[in-house]
Structure formats: C-alpha cells, structure tokens
Design brief:
Elements: E1 10-13, E2 21-24, E3 50-52, E4 58-61, E5 77-80, H1 96-102, H2 112-118, H3 131-149, H4 193-203, H5 213-216, H6 218-231, H7 240-245, H8 250-262, H9 268-285
Antiparallel strand pairs: 1-2, 3-4, 4-5
C-alpha cells in the first residue's frame, strides 16, 4: 500500500487559562514534478526520498534501495503525485487513444504505461528524424509486435513443445534457469538463453537467471522488445530501427525479426500479415508507409 504524505501547517495559540488550540492550515498544493531531483541508477536512496524519473513522473522510495529502477522495482518505489501541467520527458508519438485503437483486444498486461515507461531505455526510438519518420517507426514496431503476439494478446509462446529447444548449452553460461526456461516472452517473443543474457546485460537485469521477469513486468517486457528492435539485426542486415530511420523500408524490419523463415518467398502469408498491420497502423497515425514494404 502506498503511504500518503500529507503536509499541514499547525499553529499553536497559547491562550491564558485555556487548552492550546491547534489550527491546521488548508492542504498545500503539490510541488511540480520538476522540483524533485532526477533519479540516478546506482545512487543510494533512503525511504521517503522523492525523485523525478526519465518519463517526467515522480516516484517515492517506500524502502531504502541502491538506486533500483522505479518502474521495475515496484516494491521499493511508488508513484508520487506531483503538480503542474508539465509535458513528460520523451513524449511518445502514439497517444494512448491510438494505442487502444490499434489493440482493441489486447491483454491488460501490455499496458500503454508499461510501454511509455520503457521508452527511456532507447531514447532514439520513434524519436529520430522527421515527425513522419518517427510515426512510421512507431507503426512499424507496433505492427511487428502485433503480429508476434496476436494483437498483444499472448504474453508467452503458445507452443509449449518448443520450450526445451531454446537452450544453447555450448554457451559458457549455460541455462541456469533450466532447459525449458527460455521460451518466447513479451512483445517480440524474446527466446533463447543467449538472447536473454544479451538483453539482460544491456538493460541491467539478470534475465539469464530470471527470464520470468519478462512475463511478469510490463515495463521489462517492452524493454526487451525495444532492445531487439534497436540493437539486433537478426537474420537481416540492419536493425528494425535503422530500417525505418534510414528509409530502407519496412521489408528490412521484417527481415531483421524473422527473415530466415519468412522472406524471399519462404512464407509470403506471414509477410503480408505484417505489412497489412503496418499499413493499418500508419493510417491510424496519419502517415504514408514509405516504399520497400516487402522482403
């Protein structure tokens, strides 16, 4: 339960021959979010400290901690109401209403708040180039995650028979969470022990030993998807991010995610599914799709 901190000005009137009378002042206006210090990863915080996170929102430490992420370590931090009408840092080009329009039947796990909380991990995502380019990248990313998850419905891979296959024991770190622990999870269905290791290292999380964090924490799930989109080229020649910001086209983004199984005529129906979703989302955002849609 979050603790509410209520400040009141109390004035004591010492009246001769009477019991002191306590006069509480009216409620004080909440301080603006910008009045709090920026959160810094790895800096020690005491219980009661208030910080401004990278999304512009404030959080209060419910328990002392060595600088855990407020959007991930929710036992240590709680959201804190702050005043003002400030624009949050890193505004996303997709509004919550548009997000809900794109995913009318989504699982509640895939929250808009979880996505926007994850954006700070890759500030260049949907924030590079012209407004059109930013929206095209957002539409391309969301189209692919929609395809991967059945419209943001599935949190984990549905074919459980595949689960034991995602462990590469030749890696020096092995599969400490178990042979069948590295199945697909999250918006891009992160799988294989080496991908959990690499994503965890990049995000400062121990996903190799705790892969279940991806299916239990929405912000972590979104961050793993953004990690892949922004840093991994997979079977392609560039990342999904670079495909969209350089104008190479949506087809190269498909190739980076599942090109070895879908592109070059291997599975045209799957490619068309991704393209159709991208066209739909680009229309919602009011931008053209650009060329080179297919791979």
């Amino acid at each position: 339960m979050s603790r509410r901190r209520i400040s009141a000005l109390v004035t004591t009137l010492a009246l001769a021959g009477t019991v002191p009378v306590l006069l509480p002042a009216g409620p004080a206006a909440a301080a603006p979010c910008s009045s709090y210090p920026n959160w810094v990863a790895g800096r020690s915080y005491a219980a009661g400290d208030i910080v401004r996170y990278t999304d512009g929102r404030a959080y209060i430490a419910e328990h002392a901690n060595p600088g855990y992420d407020p959007t991930i370590s929710t036992w240590y931090w709680d959201p804190y109401a702050c005043g003002g009408s400030e624009t949050p840092v890193g505004d996303f080009v997709v509004t919550e209403a548009q997000f809900n329009q794109m995913f009318p039947g989504r699982n509640s796990f895939y929250s808009y708040g979880g996505l926007t909380a994850a954006l700070s991990a890759y500030p260049g995502f949907a924030n590079t180039g012209s407004d059109t380019t930013k929206k095209q990248e957002a539409a391309a990313f969301l189209a692919n995650v929609s395809h991967e998850t059945g419209g943001l419905v599935h949190i984990v891979e549905q074919n459980t028979a595949n689960y034991p296959h995602y462990c590469d024991w030749s890696r020096p770190y092995g599969c400490p969470a178990g042979q069948a622990a590295y199945y697909g999870r999250g918006p891009i269905q992160l799988s294989w022990n080496f991908n959990y290791k690499a994503a965890g290292d990049a995000l400062g999380l121990d996903l190799l030993n705790n892969p279940w964090l991806v299916q239990n924490d929405a912000a972590v799930a979104w961050k793993t998807a953004l990690w892949y989109w922004n840093t991994q080229s997979g079977p392609g020649s560039m990342t999904g991010h670079n495909a969209m910001v350089t104008g190479a086209g949506f087809g190269h983004a498909i190739r980076s995610i599942n090109g070895s199984l879908e592109c070059d005529g291997r599975n045209p129906a799957q490619v068309q599914s991704r393209v159709s979703k991208y066209q739909q989302f680009a229309q919602i955002l009011g931008v053209p799709t650009g060329g080179n849609l297919y791979c």
